[in-house]
Amino acid sequence: xxxxxxxxxxxxxxxxxxxxxxxxxxxxxxxxxxxxxxxxxxxxxxxxxxxxxxxxxxxxxxxxxxxxxxxxxxxxxxxxxxxxxxxxxxxxxxxxxxxxxxxxxxxxxxxxxxxxxxxxxxxxxxxxxxxxxxxxxxxxxxxxxxxxxxxxxxxxxxxxxxxxxxxxxxxxxxxxxxxxxxxxxxxxxxxxxxxxxxxxxxxxxxxxxxxxxxxxxxxxxxxxxxxxxxxxxxxxxxxxxxxxxxxxxxxxxxxxxxxxxxxxxxxxxxxxxxxxxxxxxxxxxxxxxxxxxxxxxxxxxxxxxxxxxxxxxxxxxxxxxxxxxxxxxxxxxxxxxxxxxxxxxxxxxxxxxxxxxxxxxxxxxxxxxxxxxxxxxxxxxxxxxxxxxxxxxxxxxxxxxxxxxxxxxxxxxxxxxxxxxxxxxxxxxxxxx
Amino acid sequence: xxxxxxxxxxxxxxxxxxxxxxxxxxxxxxxxxxxxxxxxxxxxxxxxxxxxxxxxxxxxxxxxxxxxxxxxxxxxxxxxxxxxxxxxxxxxxxxxxxxxxxxxxxxxxxxxxxxxxxxxxxxxxxxxxxxxxxxxxxxxxxxxxxxxxxxxxxxxxxxxxxxxxxxxxxxxxxxxxxxxxxxxxxxxxxxxxxxxxxxxxxxxxxxxxxxxxxxxxxxxxxxxxxxxxxxxxxxxxxxxxxxxxxxxxxxxxxxxxxxx
Lengths: 433, 260
Hints:
The structure holds two protein chains of two kinds. Chain A has helices spanning about 25-35, 50, 65-75, 110-115, 130-140, 195, 260-265, 270-280, 330-350, 355-385, 390-405, 405-420, and strands spanning about 5-10, 10-15, 20, 40-45, 60-65, 85-90, 90-95, 100-110, 125-130, 145-150, 155-160, 165-170, 180, 185, 200-220, 225-230, 235-240, 250-260, 290-305, 310, 310-315, 320. By secondary structure, chain A is of the alpha/beta class.
């Protein structure tokens, strides 16, 4: 159990098994998974919950792969978002040239291919608005007695001893100044303060690209089809969403553009911006109209030299950020959560010290390989497709067509995209933790 | 030679323990190793790697014996458990976290000192004693669970030692023993392989001639009215770097014994 704060003068200490720093989707999922398994968790978030769930804070959507859905279902969070999750039934990958024309050769993934044509096959994944995911996680977290949510609060220091770790918090409205735990977890994003305090270095590479994200309403229904359109400036994805409250058809656009044109796009008025989107995507969904905000994110590849240190582990973007070309960033983070939760729960059930080096080593070894493979694949895809050289265009068109004709190779690629390849944590396999 | 005694990780400071059964040569070997006990990446890495497999076996068999749910929060709540040859507490601490009231016994004063300081650091209440099973048996305390993990292959007189252990066991209790079999394969893997080739353990950690065959364990327990009810091998897979239970009793094995 999380004990009540002890008061000594101005120091208010909360005791927990695990201190999680970072209340994003990955940090919250980990907090729910551990607290649900009876491990006492203190979750530190720099943002108060109402700010976190405001649409102005984050208007993005996420592609939740089948494996990630299993994780969310296994910890009781999926029912809170299922009604607002759009299944992806088909993925169409195509190649385009600088004039916006789409190549006739394209790759077509049908979710039924995986199950040998079975119509009841699970979808590849779902598109869900981030705020829907956050709300479901916050609701579940509030219902768990072994979880304590400290927000808004920020980490100010990290002191590690042989038997545990003390996380100092800067003055904050919760009044708590310190967490005493056996393990601290950095789930605090690409710029992770925890990682910096622990002195863990990163390999960092900025792509000369910007990710533009927005939602569009469109005339015709999308029938659950996701489009990934490879343009010379970078991939352009049109991801199906559930209809909005007025019943309008909606899709989420993730569009990679070189930096300077991206700045121009961000400054356009709504009509001109819509025209740019139609120019790139075509008219297969009828007329397109941007709704809500527009966000631009610099793209980078980042990899921490270690995911584990004394009494410390990193998860999600704090450990690795990849190119969003395959929509795998959050999924990778959720697989971290499933692996770390399993390592900690297994250790706890054996009466072992859950912050011991060998427990954390198991997590690191488990996740590092999967992450490096995905980093290499997404970086390679981006380099292969983000150009307009004719021989490369021909080669990749032929490559896509060849993949389409080889069902077994296609299945391997699909399993990777669904997060069901490799040695999987129990939660990813759909088993209880 | 007197009765059997414990010396999984003895120390030079054992003059305080004056049991005839303590083998001084065995005790001296472990002295240098004791402080590294708790570093999972240090000298005792193999034992740390082995620990989850043997703990899971103990947890599941003890839970079954006493009708507990082995995946529950504290499945050993209310059970009195004796860890013979507790060393630095690598097994005693997990047993305490699983809910047991643990007594840790070791003939080496230095190990007991290490175990006590580490338990304090972990916030665990464990009764560590620098003593022998013979001495403890005369005190009259009886245990639900007696663990003899990697101990009997270091004992001077196996029969006398196990006789005292059986005396410490409650009539409905359970004893678990883990040791090395005296086979050519064990010599090749546990002595030559682990000590000389892989350098997992310092040379001279094990004396193959003192390894114990399952039949010898059974024969030593039988006069005390305790029978072996289960035997399992424990095998190491060098490719996955993992230990697992197996049917192969030729090298590492564990037995479960209960009073008749």
